[in-house]
Amino acid sequence: MLNRFKNLRIKSKLAWGFGVSGLLLLIIGLMSYEGMNRLSGHTEFIYKTNLHGITIMSDLRAQMLRRSNFVIWHILASDSPAMAAQEKSIAELDKEIEDLLAKYVPLIVAEEEKKVFAKLQAGIPEYMEIRKKVLQLSKNFSKDAAAEVQKTELAEKIGALYDMVDWLVKENNRQAEESYLSGHALSTNLNWGMGLLSLSAFLIGGIAVWFVSRLIVDNLANVLEAAEQLQNGNLTHRAKVATQDEIGKLSTAFNQMAETMQNKVEQEQKSASEMKGITSALNRAQAVIEFAPDGTVLTANENFLNTLGYSLAEIKGQHHRMFCEASYTNSGEYMAFWQRLNRGEYDAGVYRRVGKGGKEVWIQASYNPILDAAGKVYKVVKFATDVTGQKLAQNEVEKLIKTAAAGDLSNRIDITQFEGAAKTLTASVNQLLDAVVTPLREAQTVLTALADCDLTRSMTGMYHGEFEQMKSSLNGAVHKLTETITVVREAVEAVTAGSEEISKGSEDLSQRTSEQAGSLEETSASMEQMTSTVKQSADNAKQANQLAIAAREVAEKGGAVTVRAVEAMGEINKSSKKIADIITVIDEIAFQTNLLALNAAVEAARAGEHGRGFAVVASEVRNLAQRSATAAKEIKGLINESIQRVMDGSELVNQSGKTLEEIVNSVKRVTDIIAEISAASQEQASGIDQVNKAIMQMDETTQQNAALVEQTTSASQTMTQQANSLLTHVSLFKTQVTEGQKAGMKAIGMHRADTAHAIHNAYVGGGDDDAAARKPQPPRAGVRKQPAAVRPVRSSNTLSAVKTSGTKEEEFEEF
Predict the structure, then answer these.
(1) Whether the predicted pLDDT of 324 surpasses 70
(2) Are residues 459 and 439 in contact, defined by beta-carbon separation less than 8 angstroms?
(3) What CA–CA distance (Å, rounded) separates 542 from 519?
(4) Which H or E element spans position 171?
(5) Three-state secondary structure along 463-487?
């Protein structure tokens, strides 16, 4: 029964007095419910619209700042790959910024906010157009022009965009503040209304307290306790529901209200934590310091303190000028700087600052004035990034460029002292110097080897562009010099071989001349014997017939000997002419060697300092060639003189032959005309005397020929020594030319072909018995005659051998 009464409506219980109290309590409940809903709406508006909008605008500003930094890094980049990487990052940030703008559109509430946001959207294409101009100048390596546009037009445009973003942030703050004030006023009014109504209900209920106190006091005390806990900020306390009457329902509604409020507060705390996290992220990512409007330091984070080297206690309360040089702080520019900040103007750039102990610090920073509700600057927040490493890297690069321009390419930047982009920049500069120094050092090695007469070295590295052209030119010069040295050596070897063959031929000719002198001595002895026989014929007439026959035989022998002497003199004449031709060839070789030496000297002069050594060698070759030509001319003169004397001797021998023919005829007539023996004997004696004189003259001429042959041999040996000396000088140059490569050289091929052709044309035929077929032929026009080696003639050593064997003409073969 009591439980049923407890569960009755209070109206039924307090029909006579608590009806009004119940109505008031109902109104209180409705007002509380409506007030909580409205308060929840304000809170939801702050979170979903204002706080979310502030978050988007903060992200937008951060991304825009990052994009501006990438533009600056693009200008600082020194190569195309680095600039392409920055452009890629800029494009990604453009997409992110576009997404953030799209997210903000549904959050726009105020008409003024809508207009400012429209201006922001319209300003972004203008900014991108200017940025495109900056990036294009940077890509064309017009870094100074790009930097100028970036610092003027682009900075002005981005500043305007930042101002609009800041205005939107302030607008959201203003809207949030309005929502907060409205909610706060609603909460105050609600509290006052609830208090008044509760008091009224309490007074009315007091009248009926005697009737239902035991029924409702406990529940009301429970609700009151819950209300007090809620008022004290304890949102976790819940009212106990003991009955199902209005108080019980009130307790349930109150618990639901507390639950709703607790959820809203937790959401607000979560949003506040997110904002705190964003602020903490900024503190971790950048150096942050706050100033009063007069420049007094308020606080600074660890990044800033670590960058400048100070502790917070050392800088707090100090003026901003402690971070600047005295010359700057005393200037009007510094005063204007703070005046702009106090006017609420934003300032950003790269600044030189002084850290603890005078340490030089370069920072990229932005000074952001913070305004209060009245629009007055109450503090300045500075966000900074330490760019000291980049600045020091720039200084190191400039120093390295100066030393390189002075010719010192050995220095390199120590990249261990840098990090990030500065380290990449300095490492790239070091790589650039290495790419320049490597081919220069290899070229120096080749030229040093060339100065040491070593032509085996060449540039073998893999290069591109101008370095590849330098490599091709230097290797081509070494190849041409090698080919020239090889051709000169080939010619000198040919001269050496020719002079040796000439020397051998001269020695062989000297031997044959000696043999010829012996034959003449035998002939002279025979003539003396014939003279004695003729005298005996005159004295002994009885033996006239036998003596005539003997005289006839002796005369025939004398005639044969005379014929042999005439033939020998003819052979000597031919040999002398051939020697003269050989000397002519030697003279032409000396002339060609002189031309080669002259050409080599010209090439050495073109080579300049590096061809000085080769010019000396070429000069020596030319002197040797001139001496060879002089010796050849002298030998030629002597040979011509010898030929003339041989011709005179041949004439005398011919006369002797005629005389011997007369003697033979006379001897034939002796048998018929014995009476004329005495007269014929006298004539024979007279003729024999003339023959003796002629033979003596032949002997004298032969001795002179022998002396000339000895001189020719000596001159040939001298020419051989000079050619060997020239070959020694040429051999100082080391080459790697094989015989196959020599055969492939055009100059050597022409030289060998001309030599073989000249010898072939000069000495046509190969028979040993036909002297006429072996007669030297005149050389073709334009073909230089080359020396030919003389094969020793096969001749007899005694007079008897001469009688029984035919003579063999000299044979020539190519060497």
Answers:
(1) yes
(2) yes
(3) 34
(4) helix 155-207
(5) CCHHHHHHHHHHHHHHHHHHHHHHH
Q: DSSP string spanning 732-755?
A: TSB----HHHHHH-HHHHHHHHHH
> How crowded is residue 336: how many other Cβ atoms within 10 Å of its Cβ?
10
Claim to verify: residue 656 and residue 709 sit in the same structural domain: yes
Query: Exposure of 144 by Cβ count < 10 A (0-12 exposed, 13-18 middle, 19+ buried)?
Result: exposed
Tell me which residue of 265, 712, 698 sits closest to 506, measured CA to CA: 712
Q: Distance from first CA to last CA of the chain, Å, rounded?
A: 154
Residue 476, both tokens: 């081509």
Instruction: Kindly state the tokens that stand for 517.
Output: 């002198």
Element (H or E) spanning 629, and its range? helix 612-670
Q: What is the DSSP string of 62-124?
A: HHHHHHHHHHHHHHH--SHHHHHHHHHHHHHHHHHHHHHHHHHGGG--SHHHHHHHHHHHHHH
CATH number for the domain harbouring residue 628: 1.10.287.950
Distances from the Cα of 33 to the Cα of 26, 446, 660, angstroms: 10, 98, 174
Q: Give yes or no for residue 804 having a pLDDT over 50.
A: no
Q: Are 366 and 348 in contact (CB under 8 A)?
A: yes
Q: What are phi and psi of 7, to 5 degrees?
A: -90, 0
DSSP, residue by residue, 222-277: HHHHHHHHHHTT--S-------SSHHHHHHHHHHHHHHHHHHHHHHHHHHHHHHHH
Q: Round the CA-based radius of gyration of the chain to a whole number and report it.
A: 64
Q: Distance between CA 611 and CA 600 in Å, rounded?
A: 10
Pairing of strands 347-354, 360-371: antiparallel
Q: Which residues contact 64 (CB under 8 A, 6 or more apart)?
A: 97, 158, 161, 162, 165
DSSP state of 174: H
Work out the burial of residue 199: count CB atoms within 10 Å of its CB; fewer than 13 is exposed, 13-18 middle, 19 or more buried: exposed
Residues 220 and 184 in one domain: no
The residue range of the domain holding 243 is 215-280
Going from the C-alpha of 731 to that of each of 55, 248, 492, 727, 786, the distances in angstroms are 86, 125, 10, 6, 23
Band of pLDDT at residue 520, cut at 50, 70 and 90: confident
Domain-terminating residue out of 701, 717, 732: 732
Contact 321, 295 (CB under 8 A): yes
Separation of alpha carbons 472 and 478, rounded Å: 10
DSSP category for residue 407: T
* ∠ CA 762-767-768, rounded to 5°: 105
Q: Both 198 and 238 in a single domain?
A: no
Q: What is the DSSP letter of 769?
A: S
Q: At 105, which CATH number?
A: 1.20.120.30
Beta bridge partners of 365: 349, 384
Domain endpoint, select from 732, 755, 779:
732
In terms of residues, how long is the chain? 815
What H or E segment, with its residue span, contains residue 360?
Answer: strand 360-371
pLDDT at 336 over 90: yes
Q: How far is CA 52 from CA 134, 272, 274, 360, 625, in A?
A: 34, 11, 10, 41, 101
* Contact between 382 and 291 (Cβ < 8 Å): yes
**DSSP type of residue 14:** T
Residue-averaged pLDDT of the chain: 74
Element (H, E) at 385: strand 377-386
Q: pTM higher than 0.70, yes or no? A: no
Whole-angstrom distance, CA of residue 619 vs CA of residue 600: 9
What is the rounded distance in angstroms from the CA atom of residue 775 to the CA atom of residue 575? Answer: 11
Query: Are residues 446 and 457 in contact, defined by beta-carbon separation less than 8 angstroms?
Result: yes
287-307 pLDDT, tens digit per residue, is: 889 999 999 999 998 888 888
* Other CB atoms within 10 A of residue 125 CB: 9
Contacts 24+ apart (CB under 8 A), 471-474: 471/439, 471/443, 474/443, 474/446, 474/447
DSSP 3-state of 456: coil
SS (H, E, C) 150-161: HHHHHHHHHHHH
